[in-house]
Write a structure and sequence with these properties.
Elements lengths: L9 H11 L10 H4 L2 H12 L12 H7 L12 H8 L8 H17 L1 H6 L1 H10 L5 H14 L21 H4 L8 H17 L4 H14 L49 H10 L8 H11 L9 H6 L17 H15 L12 H11 L1
């Protein structure tokens, strides 16, 4: 059943696999076959990756995959490892046929175990994501699975019935899918993120800030290996120095009156001369310098530890970090974030942003 080539006898092999699915539950249950449930589902999903899967009619790969997950009231239910193939790149994140088959199988599981589908954040994320795919086959199958998990019947009209809101933790598994290699999945992730914000307005600010931080974090880190070089003239010829600024002198207006000269007298010597009547003694230059040293406040010496240690560092001891090169994954991350932000303007999502959230968006975009 694996591989792109259609080997004779493949129809019978798929029929044998579907026949052994009856041994997973019920009276014919077999412990050895029950351990192969995950491998059986993975084989059918691998078959759906190829176009030749459309030639299988009785049973079809869609029916065979659903039969691998049949349970009854007596069985303990499906375990997380058994459902894992439906959620991976060959299931809900695969091609169109794989995604339709995964959604139809999850619908059958939701009919028997609705709490399992609603209580598992990853299963809820995969169904919610495919509810907003552009392909009608995928979108209708996913919406049916979502509505059945939330209490609607299997024959519900998926076109006219509104979807129940997801949990408030919708953003955590959706963020990595915004930069998925498949453009259809990335667009569906952006649309499902926007509609979830519209259904939970209280989570808008937190999740939009998370988008902005993810965008900023996806930029390559700068390095410190850029050496400062002395600025050299661009020409080999000598360059004239810039002209010195002219100092303008203030003009003094002559009034014709005699100028008054004031002599500076020390306050201490002047007061003593008043008492004794003797003229104030003149201080020598050495005396003035000594008094200035005594009167000046002493400054405490401070030792800068960093500048002290830098004296013993050699140029080879400093670590140089080269700038990180931009990569395709970082570019895809930034593109996915911008796609999600632009989808907030979709009128069908009915997103209402408060003034603080709008300020955050505007400051980020500017």
């Amino acid at each position: 059943l694996t591989g792109p080539r259609n080997v004779p006898g493949c129809d019978a092999a798929l029929a044998v696999l579907e026949r052994h699915s009856a041994m997973l539950v019920g009276d014919e249950v077999d412990a050895a076959v029950k351990q192969l449930r995950k491998d059986m589902a993975s084989t059918v999903l691998e078959l759906l990756c190829h176009d030749r899967s459309q030639t299988f009619m009785n049973p079809s790969p869609y029916e065979a995959l659903t039969s691998c997950y049949v349970t009854d009231d007596a069985s303990p239910g499906l375990a997380a490892p058994e459902i894992a193939p439906l959620l991976g790149e060959r299931g809900a994140l695969g091609g169109e046929n794989n995604r339709v088959a995964a959604m139809e199988t999850l619908t059958a599981i939701a009919l028997k175990q609705p709490k399992l589908v609603r209580g598992n954040p990853l299963i809820e994320n995969r169904i919610w994501l495919n509810c907003y795919d552009k392909a009608d086959r995928i979108k209708n199958a996913a919406r049916r699975a979502w509505l059945v998990a939330h209490g609607h019947s299997a024959d519900v009209d998926v076109g006219s019935t509104p979807l129940d809101p997801p949990t408030k933790m919708y953003a955590v598994p959706l963020l990595p899918l915004l930069s998925n290699e498949d453009s259809a999945i990335a667009s569906a992730a952006a649309a499902s993120f926007t509609h979830a914000v519209g259904m939970h307005p209280g989570t808008a600010e937190k999740n939009i800030v998370k988008l902005c931080n993810t965008y900023i974090g996806s930029f390559p880190a700068p390095g410190n290996d850029v050496e400062e070089k002395a600025s050299k003239p661009s020409s080999v010829f000598p360059v004239a120095p810039p002209p010195a600024a002219k100092v303008t002198k203030k003009k003094v207006i002559d009034t014709g009156l005699p100028k008054k000269k004031t002599k500076k007298v020390s306050s201490v010597s002047a007061s003593m001369s008043k008492i004794t009547g003797a003229p104030a003694p003149k201080k020598s230059a050495a005396t003035k310098k000594l008094l200035a040293k005594v009167a000046a406040p002493k400054k405490e010496r401070s030792l800068d530890q960093d500048s002290l240690m830098d004296q013993f560092k050699s140029p080879s001891s400093t670590k140089k970090e080269t700038a990180e090169a931009d990569s395709g994954s970082k570019v895809a991350t930034r593109m996915g974030i911008l796609r999600a932000i632009s989808s907030l303007t979709d009128p069908s999502a009915n997103v209402k942003l408060d003034l603080p959230v709008l300020k955050i968006l505007l400051s980020f975009l500017m």
